[in-house]
Design goal:
By secondary structure, the chain is an alpha+beta fold. It is about 40% helix and about 10% strand. It has a 5-stranded antiparallel beta sheet. It is globular, with a radius of gyration of 16 Å.
Amino acid sequence: MKMPGRLSAACVLAIGFLAAGSALLLLDRTRVRANTCAVLTHRQAGNAGQAPCLDIRHFVVFMNSVADDRKVTGRQCAWAVRAGLQAGGLDFEKYPYYSKDYAPFLAGLDFSKIPNDSRPQPGDIMVLQPGLNPSGHVQVWDGRRWVSDFMQPPNRGQYQGKGYRDIDAPYALYRYPRPCQ
């Protein structure tokens, strides 16, 4: 998708979020910024006046570009998912700082809680309560594996690490009811 000549206010705002997060995550800033601006430009043009929808493809592409095949967390999963939701087209001003607090936040964005034994679909979000990390964890299903600020190896199941597996940390799955067509 061609980048616009002038950046919209939403694009500049998203770049600001990404610039702050990219220093923490050591991201390839140019690629993530370009992806975000292209997604925001597409969203603004194609969804005016309609109920908000989540562009699952853009959400998942963004999440994978943030994780960039890293196998270790940068402890920025909440930031990555929040930025991914915004890149996928959802607008919000208030958001939780800790991953463990994402359940009510997602419910407020109209995500539906689905049974834990459901087969995950791309764009589904899992919120894990604290394990080894007292902040908890939040991750997105990309169609093959769970992704947050790193790529979780497929053989780990729903738990991103040993600390969560050992205590069988409680978790919940969420799905957005209005993906963009």
